[in-house]
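Human: You know discrete backbone vocabularies at least as well as I do. Show me how you would write down a chain together with its backbone fold. No explanation is needed for now; the record alone will do.

Assistant:
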Amino acid sequence: MRYRTLLPLLLLAVACKDRDAGPDAPIPTVVNVEDVHSYARPHEVRVRHVSLDLTPDFTSKKLKGTARLTIERSELADSIVLDIKGLAITSVKQPGGGPLPFRAGIDDSIKGRPLVVDLPAQGDTIVIEYETGAGAEAVQWLEPSQTAGGKLPFLFTQGQAILTRTWVPTQDSPGIRQTYDARIHVPLGMRAVMSAELLKQDGEPGPNNTTTYSFKLDHPVPPYLIALAVGDLEFREIGSRSGVWAEPSVVDKAANEFAEVEQMIGAAEKLYGPYRWGRYDILVLPPSFPFGGMENPRLTFATPTVLAGDRSLVSLIAHELAHSWSGNLVTNATWSDFWLNEGFTTYIESRIMEELRGKDYADMLRSLGRQSLDETMADLGATSPDTRLHIDLAGRNPDDGMTDIAYEKGAGFLQTVEAAVGRDKLDAFLRKYFDEHAFQPMTSEVFVAYMNANLFKGNEDAATRVNAQQWIFEPGLPQNLPVITPVRFTAVDAQVAAFQAGTSPDSLVTTDWSTQEWLRFLRALPDTMTSAQMTALDAKFNFTNTGNSEILFVWLQHAIHSNYPPAMPALDHFLTSQGRRKFVAPLYQTMMNSATHREHARTLYAKARAGYHSVTRNTVDGIVK
């Protein structure tokens, strides 16, 4: 059904008024959900396609060019409202036609500004000439010295949650899916890659000694998944439909690290249906990338901190791949339902890893996630409204909802459903859910109604035992969450007890421990230990010099709490050599909580801040004061 056919029927999402509605209640429909983080009015005019023609200027650190928007509008609509933040708009016109009047509204520190364009009586396309502003939050420009090769500059974009509006003028809401194509003109010797199919690379140098790369994505995606990177990049194939992009000195290591990707794709397809995006490639970015990974379709953006050398951290790749179903295929309509992306994905991640490495391994991942959830619950408080899955983000940055509540409580909800109905029924339901809602937005209310009708109908007792209302719309952690007891953690806990009872690290039994077992061991130790304990552990296991970022992160927290000087150079290097927010923010927080380390945190952050992406800076600015 085309959009205009739907317009007279409703203005906002038809929401389920009774969240406790039973399995016979009608299933509501998601069409135009009100998004508090967007100025767009999609019930009047909706962007359907974005066509970009952009040139990155590495001197001015700006992207310059045009965005050609294909729109669909109701018969009475005379203007379109777009989201922009920091963009300098030069002109708006019809293709081959005259200028169109436009005006930018009042600036909001979170949302940016509305760009209102008056539409002509006829026509479904507008062309916007623009350039990004200085310090566009989605775009990070890196000097050659900040890359692995040290020869060429680099840029990458990070649009989630609402940063695409800082480099693309469009309706920047996850509920407004758009197809896109792009022509990117880059300096000779550099490569452009995008979250789309590469159509063409012009072989001859163009104006100003540039090479042009052309891309197209036919599947509609939320705008935050439009992604671009430009740099000194090489490719290595790792499977029939998968490969790795990275800087030349990194690409072979990355290809070896991600050798199991084809197995992951097969495992996910076996569970939840066909992979619908064609290729699945991975781009390993410079270390300033603020996240572990970003699930941009066809091209996951990944941090180099996952390259442990032993494939022990590749569950992160399983997570990003899982987004090809939960998040990219079926997307939270607004950021208040972020759990519909991340909770589902965290659950599927563990299922993929279980297929690859067995239940014992997956249970360790689930248990570590549960521990992180418990810590987040303790930090927020069990009655905090921010412990709900469906979260109120009005007037707030959507990044405020990107906590372990969405990830781990969301996964815990699906684990609870699995325990109530059985794994086979849940798998069949999820496959049906992805098939029937492919390339569509989703809300919590619609999901609950769909689940009642398609999973709990005829099994109302299971619905009662799960209690979706409590899980999704109420704070706290329900008591029906299944207990996870990894077999391999029992042995780890015995060694923790032995160490705390005085056993020397030399006598601990740790042979062939996985990263997950080491994380369990380190997390179970007291935050603060004596100098003798820290020295003995470091002498035996060399934690300060480990190349495993997850293990080093936990060890450095102990080092700060315990005032362990030998680890301080490693702490400084870790915080100045990578910008992954998961690591950076807690370490600065731990330092700021310590009178001993507080001033050093301020000095170190002043040195490192310029090298972090805005996503990381925006978080740490609130910590280091």
